[in-house]
Specification:
By secondary structure, the protein is an alpha+beta fold. The protein contains 3 helices and 4 strands. The protein has a single domain, classed as Roll (Nuclear Transport Factor 2, Chain: A), CATH 3.10.450.700. A 4-stranded antiparallel sheet has the order 1-2-3-4, with no helix packed on it. The chain starts with a helix and ends in a 5-residue tail after the last helix.
Protein backbone atom coordinates (compact mmCIF):
# COMPACT_ATOMS: atom_id res chain seq x y z
CA UNK A 1 0.00 0.00 0.00
CA UNK A 2 1.57 3.28 -1.02
CA UNK A 3 1.41 6.60 0.82
CA UNK A 4 -1.33 7.90 -1.48
CA UNK A 5 -3.68 5.06 -0.47
CA UNK A 6 -3.18 5.53 3.30
CA UNK A 7 -3.62 9.30 3.26
CA UNK A 8 -7.18 10.53 3.89
CA UNK A 9 -8.43 13.46 1.84
CA UNK A 10 -10.98 16.09 2.77
CA UNK A 11 -14.42 14.86 1.82
CA UNK A 12 -16.03 18.30 1.88
CA UNK A 13 -14.87 21.84 2.52
CA UNK A 14 -16.63 25.19 2.73
CA UNK A 15 -15.05 28.59 3.43
CA UNK A 16 -17.16 31.40 4.89
CA UNK A 17 -15.58 34.87 4.49
CA UNK A 18 -16.45 37.19 7.39
CA UNK A 19 -14.49 40.47 7.29
CA UNK A 20 -10.98 39.93 8.65
CA UNK A 21 -11.93 36.37 9.56
CA UNK A 22 -12.63 33.33 7.48
CA UNK A 23 -14.33 30.19 8.79
CA UNK A 24 -13.66 26.79 7.27
CA UNK A 25 -15.92 23.79 7.71
CA UNK A 26 -14.15 20.62 6.59
CA UNK A 27 -15.43 17.05 6.69
CA UNK A 28 -12.64 14.50 7.05
CA UNK A 29 -12.34 10.83 7.84
CA UNK A 30 -10.31 8.90 10.42
CA UNK A 31 -8.20 5.93 9.40
CA UNK A 32 -11.02 3.82 10.85
CA UNK A 33 -13.54 5.36 8.44
CA UNK A 34 -15.38 7.61 10.93
CA UNK A 35 -16.26 11.05 9.63
CA UNK A 36 -15.64 14.18 11.68
CA UNK A 37 -15.72 17.96 11.18
CA UNK A 38 -12.96 20.46 11.68
CA UNK A 39 -14.01 24.07 12.19
CA UNK A 40 -11.19 26.53 11.61
CA UNK A 41 -11.17 30.26 12.29
CA UNK A 42 -8.48 32.08 10.32
CA UNK A 43 -7.81 35.71 11.22
CA UNK A 44 -5.67 38.12 9.22
CA UNK A 45 -3.40 40.06 11.58
CA UNK A 46 -0.62 42.60 11.15
CA UNK A 47 2.84 42.17 12.67
CA UNK A 48 4.11 45.62 13.67
CA UNK A 49 7.70 44.34 13.96
CA UNK A 50 7.95 42.95 10.43
CA UNK A 51 5.36 45.16 8.74
CA UNK A 52 3.69 42.11 7.24
CA UNK A 53 0.32 40.45 7.49
CA UNK A 54 -0.02 36.88 8.76
CA UNK A 55 -2.84 34.48 9.53
CA UNK A 56 -3.65 33.10 12.97
CA UNK A 57 -5.63 29.87 12.91
CA UNK A 58 -7.70 28.19 15.61
CA UNK A 59 -9.05 24.73 14.95
CA UNK A 60 -11.71 22.62 16.63
CA UNK A 61 -12.49 18.95 15.98
CA UNK A 62 -16.10 17.80 16.21
CA UNK A 63 -16.84 14.06 16.21
CA UNK A 64 -20.09 12.53 14.97
CA UNK A 65 -21.13 11.28 18.42
CA UNK A 66 -21.15 14.92 19.55
CA UNK A 67 -23.00 16.46 16.56
CA UNK A 68 -26.44 16.54 18.20
CA UNK A 69 -25.10 17.96 21.49
CA UNK A 70 -23.07 20.59 19.65
CA UNK A 71 -26.02 21.55 17.42
CA UNK A 72 -28.30 21.88 20.47
CA UNK A 73 -25.77 24.03 22.30
CA UNK A 74 -25.32 26.28 19.25
CA UNK A 75 -29.09 26.52 18.72
CA UNK A 76 -29.51 27.44 22.40
CA UNK A 77 -26.90 30.21 22.08
CA UNK A 78 -28.59 31.59 18.93
CA UNK A 79 -31.99 31.42 20.61
CA UNK A 80 -30.71 33.34 23.64
CA UNK A 81 -29.20 36.04 21.41
CA UNK A 82 -32.47 36.40 19.47
CA UNK A 83 -34.91 36.24 22.41
CA UNK A 84 -32.96 37.02 25.58
CA UNK A 85 -34.56 33.97 27.19
CA UNK A 86 -32.21 31.44 28.75
CA UNK A 87 -32.96 28.04 27.21
CA UNK A 88 -32.82 24.83 29.22
CA UNK A 89 -29.35 23.29 29.37
CA UNK A 90 -28.34 20.46 27.07
CA UNK A 91 -28.53 17.33 29.23
CA UNK A 92 -26.23 14.51 28.16
CA UNK A 93 -24.36 11.65 29.72
CA UNK A 94 -20.60 11.99 29.94
CA UNK A 95 -19.37 10.15 26.84
CA UNK A 96 -15.70 10.02 27.80
CA UNK A 97 -14.75 6.60 29.08
CA UNK A 98 -11.09 6.08 29.87
CA UNK A 99 -8.84 6.70 26.90
CA UNK A 100 -11.59 7.18 24.28
CA UNK A 101 -10.67 10.80 23.56
CA UNK A 102 -6.98 9.94 23.23
CA UNK A 103 -7.81 6.92 21.06
CA UNK A 104 -9.83 9.10 18.68
CA UNK A 105 -6.92 11.53 18.34
CA UNK A 106 -4.63 8.64 17.45
CA UNK A 107 -6.97 7.66 14.59
CA UNK A 108 -6.83 11.10 12.95
CA UNK A 109 -4.46 11.76 10.09
CA UNK A 110 -3.10 15.24 10.90
CA UNK A 111 -1.44 15.81 7.50
CA UNK A 112 -2.21 19.29 6.24
Amino acid sequence: MDNQETRKEELYSQAIPAGKRRYFFDVKETRGGDKFITITESRKLFNNNTGEFYFEKNKMFLYKEDFDKFRQGLDNAFSFIETGIVPPPVVVEDSYHGDDAEKRLEEIDFKF
